[in-house]
Amino acid sequence: MSYHLPTSAGWLAHWQLLVAASAVFNTVQNFCTLKLTRRLYNNVPAPTITALQARTFAVWTLTSAVVRAYAAYNINNKIMYDMAFLTYLIAFAHFSSELLIFRTASINVAVLSPVIVSTTSLVWMFTQYDFYVR
């Protein structure tokens, strides 16, 4: 099994792969049910969270998972590193704006999870840029 894991130095590539795998789970759940999506956007009436919205969110999540998985195996490639970094920046901006500007979400596990993952990833990638992209 370990021969399928990224071989670069450090743990960032493994983190990228873990986050990508988690995003695939989130993608599947968004295609199958609205239950977890409604937990995330809990400050709006449940009927306003539609299957179309969930599928659109699923496609975005899958797209970011693909970018992050590619980055896991190409962590020293500046373009892949930058693209993965931008996916976390977009995620952070989205969830922060839903919390602070649009107020469609309130602080709970469903929203804290992506905020923590995106913040951790952004800080880690920013501080370790020179180590991975030489």
UniProtKB/TrEMBL annotation:
Key word Ligase present: no
GO biological process: sterol biosynthetic process
Keyword Transmembrane helix annotated: yes
The entry's keywords: Endoplasmic reticulum, Lipid biosynthesis, Lipid metabolism, Membrane, Steroid biosynthesis, Steroid metabolism, Sterol biosynthesis, Sterol metabolism, Transmembrane, Transmembrane helix
An example molecular function term from Gene Ontology annotations: protein-macromolecule adaptor activity
Alphabetized InterPro entries for the sequence: Erg28
Transmembrane segments: 12-32, 79-102, 109-127
Cellular component GO terms held in the UniProt record: endoplasmic reticulum membrane
Intracellular or extracellular location(s): Endoplasmic reticulum membrane
Topological relation to the membrane, as annotated: Multi-pass membrane protein
Domain of life: Eukaryota
Family recorded in the similarity comment: Belongs to the ERG28 family.
Name listed for the protein in its UniProt record: Erg28-like protein
Species: Hypholoma sublateritium (strain FD-334 SS-4)
Lineage start: Eukaryota, Fungi, Dikarya, Basidiomycota, Agaricomycotina
